[in-house]
Amino acid sequence: MPEAPDRGKVLRGGEFYSPVKSRLITDGILLSELRQPCSRSVPRHEHELAYVTVVLQGDYLEGDRGHLDELHPFTAAFNPVGAAHATEIGPAGAWFFTIEFRREAMRAIDLRVPDSPACDRGLGSLLWPSIRLYSAFKEQPANPLLLDSVLVEMMGAVSELDASPAASSEWSVPRWFSRIKERLHEGFREPLRIGDLAREAGIHPVHVARVFRRLEGRTPGEYQQRLQVRAACDLLRDPDWTLAAIAAECGFADQSHFTRAFRRLARTTPARFRQAVLSPGTAA
């Protein structure tokens, strides 16, 4: 009889290797804020519930069989039930927000989740609902209707992880497309125009705009703004940076423009988000 595969320890809902600083349990989900104060190697394990982890701060690597990916702050990672992995946390420790989905809740709303792990570094559909849920979680007292509303959005984002436009096999990715994305990542702080991207690719601007939306599900301008807001999230963790300075550093026209763009994605203001990520964990 063949040996059972080495899956490692199975963690029950709400069980983690890192200390839980605050928690909120509802009929559908378990929300936990974790703070690992120092470096740690977490052995291979799996979770009994499907879940999303949002890295808020620290050096964090996750993967399996020696292949670990670095997950920078403000990255959301989804793991389905039974996905075995190990993690490495750097010397400065790490800070996480996790969203675990109860099986009963998923069955009740007929939620279908991917069979394999997925990661959103700020350009997909998973990170920003996760950030909105974290902001709602940190409200004291938490607003039940707000939590429920964001939770539904969050579950929808999880169910759509396998349905991104770029994943469709019927659409081929042109060779010039990677140059467009590199230009956006390198110059997202600049006031880029569609003509700049078209010259980079040697393609007509209308064709660039059409193909970009088809493959990414959003315009180049929306893509750039997500890069800007994610960069701003990193700076908001440092109280020495003023909102006006962050706006200028991340390429926004001014602080008002920054606030509008941030609110559109995170459903909260930069000031309130800063308060959430700088405040100590409290029991919820």
What is the overall pLDDT average? Answer: 86
Instruction: Classify the secondary structure makeup into a structural class.
Output: alpha+beta
Q: Segments where pLDDT lies below 50 for 5+ residues?
A: 1-5
The main sheet comes to: 9 strands, mixed
Distance between the termini: 48 Å
**Overall form:** globular
Q: What is the gyration radius calculated from CA atoms?
A: 20 Å
How many β-strands, per DSSP?
A: 9
* SSE string, helices as H and strands as E: EEEEEEEEHEHHHHHHHHH
Looking at CATH, the homologous superfamily of the largest domain is Homeodomain-like
Q: With helices defined by DSSP (H or I, 4 residues minimum), what is the helix count?
A: 10
Task: Using the coordinates above, name the CATH class of the largest domain.
Answer: Mainly Alpha
CATH domain fold name of the largest domain = Arc Repressor Mutant, subunit A
Strand content: 15-25%
Helix content: 25-40%
